[in-house]
Design brief:
It is a single chain. This protein is 50% helix and 9% strand. With 413 residues, the protein is an alpha/beta fold. The chain folds into 2 domains: 152 residues; 242 residues, Class I glutamine amidotransferase (GATase) domain (Rossmann fold).
Length: 413
């Protein structure tokens, strides 16, 4: 254990010296934001202090109190830094998880010596029980912090430029898939899927909170399948929580309008929600394509989508029979994210299909595209498209901004 304490001192002193005095030597920090550099110096200062403390413990190894203090403080330090660095890796601050892995390994060794030192005379069963307690405590802490870690990493981010709009008297239509099974080509069975919850709930409440009347439609009408994974505790949004308590919204989802029966031209906002189910019917629906074209030429609706919802635009054509979205700047879920999630058997992939039609495809990419987002407005300011499940707030806000501008111009005219 004395050797371990010495190694810990050297590691912390070296890491502290580099991060405090020369953080620019770390490529990920040098290429990142200035705030990352400042945080690195703060960590470096802490590491220097801990390194000096560890060195003193090594020199006074016979002092049992100092050793126990070292083990308990370093165990907490390594586990908390492991969690922090893991979150930074997920947020693409660091290109690889090496730093998080190092602190996790150091935590394991520290935990081992902590048990060995504090329970030297205890029975083997008690040592095992204590070890399991530390493991379960760590897992419990990670689970408790997981929603916050994922949020900080980029899942369902807050939109910094969010505004409160008053769009009373305006109408919005949310369109979803009617397909509820995630299956391979040629098969009919698989895991349940459908619309991804937040891609429907976030815009619904954005529009409703602005005073808009919101209708919900789907390809076939009737009950909309909602992907059950949408509401997992670590990725569930506030909008999802509102939906689960909102009988009126749930009734709209259970008895959605059939797109064939809806006049798209009567709406100010038309929203195409995504989810894996959308890959099976939005892009294949000629009726949806015709409805989108009608909405476009009516001039009134602002049309938006997120993630797989962009597939609902690929059948729309102009008066000459050309694809309506060709040459426009748009976004949708990336091929990279689909591959990272391991679900590539779906029939249509947004990035691939949009590029085929000559769309100027925009996206943000990182260690994992699941944590990225972008929302873009096309050159004509008729379409607002978001990259994935994280883009709901921004996309809806930008759509309402355009609607508010139109209303202002109409009022002035």
């Amino acid at each position: 254990m004395k050797r371990f304490i010495f190694i810990s001192a050297i590691i912390e002193l070296l890491a502290g010296a580099i991060l405090f005095f020369t953080p620019q030597l770390v490529p990920d920090l040098a290429q990142g934001e200035s705030s990352h550099m400042a945080m690195a110096r703060m960590y470096g200062a802490a590491a220097l202090g801990l390194g000096i403390f560890a060195f003193q413990v090594w020199r006074n190894f016979d002092n049992e109190t100092m050793v126990k203090t070292f083990l308990s403080s370093f165990l907490v330090f390594h586990m908390t830094v492991f969690i922090a660095l893991l979150a930074s890796f997920l947020a693409s601050v660091f290109a690889n998880p090496a730093g998080a892995l190092l602190h996790f390994i150091m935590a394991l060794f520290t935990g081992y010596f902590f048990i060995k030192n504090n329970l030297a005379d205890a029975s083997r069963g008690r040592k095992i029980f204590t070890g399991l307690g530390l493991v379960l405590g760590t897992i419990g802490t990670l689970l408790f912090l997981l929603p916050n870690i994922l949020h900080q990493a980029g899942v369902h981010p807050d939109y910094a430029d969010s505004k409160e709009y008053n769009l009373s008297g305006k109408k919005a239509l949310i369109i979803t898939t009617s397909h509820g099974i995630l299956h391979d080509p040629g098969e009919t069975t698989g895991n349940p899927t459908g619309v991804f919850g937040s891609e429907m709930t976030v815009p619904y409440y954005e529009f409703q909170d602005a005073g808009m009347d919101v209708d919900v439609a789907s390809i076939k009408g009737g009950e909309i399948p909602v992907d059950p994974q949408s509401f997992l505790f670590m990725i569930k949004t506030k909008a999802d929580e509102r939906y689960l308590e909102d009988n009126t919204f749930q009734e709209k989802v259970k008895n959605s309008l059939r797109i064939d029966d809806v006049d798209f031209t009567q709406y100010d906002a038309i929203w195409l929600a995504g989810g894996w189910g959308a890959a099976y019917d939005l892009g294949q629906s000629k009726a949806l394509g015709e409805k989108v074209s009608e909405a476009y030429y009516a001039q009134k609706p602002t049309i938006g989508s997120v993630c797989h919802g962009a597939l609902g635009l690929i059948q729309a054509k102009d008066t000459l029979g050309n694809f309506l979205i060709t040459g426009r700047t748009m976004s949708g879920v990336t091929d990279k994210q689909i591959k990272e999630l391991g679900i590539t058997a779906t029939p249509l992939h947004p990035e691939t299909e949009l590029r085929k039609l000559g769309v100027n495809f925009k996206s943000n990419s990182g260690t994992q595209d699941f944590f990225q987002t972008i929302s873009v407005i096309d050159e004509e300011r008729r379409f607002v498209t978001g990259q994935n499940q994280n883009s709901g707030h921004e996309t809806a806000q930008k759509m309402m901004g355009i609607i508010a501008e139109k209303s202002s111009k109409t009022f002035k005219d």
